[in-house]
Structure prediction request, 241 residues.
Amino acid sequence: MGKTEDRRTIPGRLRLPLPPLPAIAVSHRLRYVRVSELVKDGIFMSCECGCGQQTKVATQSSTRRGWVNGQPVRFLPYHHVRMEHKTPVDVRFWAKVNKTETCWLWVGAVTDNGYGNFRKKRKSIPAHRVSYELLIGPIPDGLELDHLCRVRNCVNPEHLEPVTRQENVKRGVGWAGENGNAGARKRRTHCNQGHEFTPENTGIRSDGEGRLCKKCKATVNRRVYLAQKNRALDSQQAGGG
Prediction:
């Protein structure tokens, strides 16, 4: 054999003759990517934390991490945490708020329930709580913030009111607000089957804990009666046979 070529193995079946490259260029995350071409084309970029190191190229898209397939990532692993110490909390926070004439809409990360999510001291905190604490002050112990505007990603402190957990649930517009407590159940005008709670159709439960629908109760009693009657007939037929 002739002169031995300087070869470097890239995980993922590619084995290419490459010039000397930074160690970061042959990371296991760069599967099936021609690292020499990336370096030649200048695709690598510096980490945004200011460390001066080069970041990698994303091999897949990820909304949670902010990756775009084929584009350099913004930070090296765990370097995004350094930005929290360099940039003041209020500057980072208000940069992700779109103030309209009514609501101040959070345009950053949101939870599955639609509430804004802000990272502070390596912890995820609801964005509307951060806004209230920045402009109003600490939230009283035992209370939570209720959105008066019913816009979950709104962080306008004028639309937030500290209330108890019970009051917050009572004001809810979903299932919990309609069924989550005794006060909400008393405000209901119809039963689960759609029967109206009129004076003639409203009874009191045997345990005295609430109302019952007489039509629904009659339907249940009728089913129980027929079931008992059928069992009695089956027993007679079995005994006679």
The chain has three domains: 1-78, 87-185, 189-241. Helices lie at 35-40, 80-86, 89-94, 127-135, 165-170, 175-179, 182-186, 214-240. The beta strands are 7-10, 14-17, 97-99, 104-106, 117-120, 123-126, 144-147, 160-163, 202-204, 211-213.
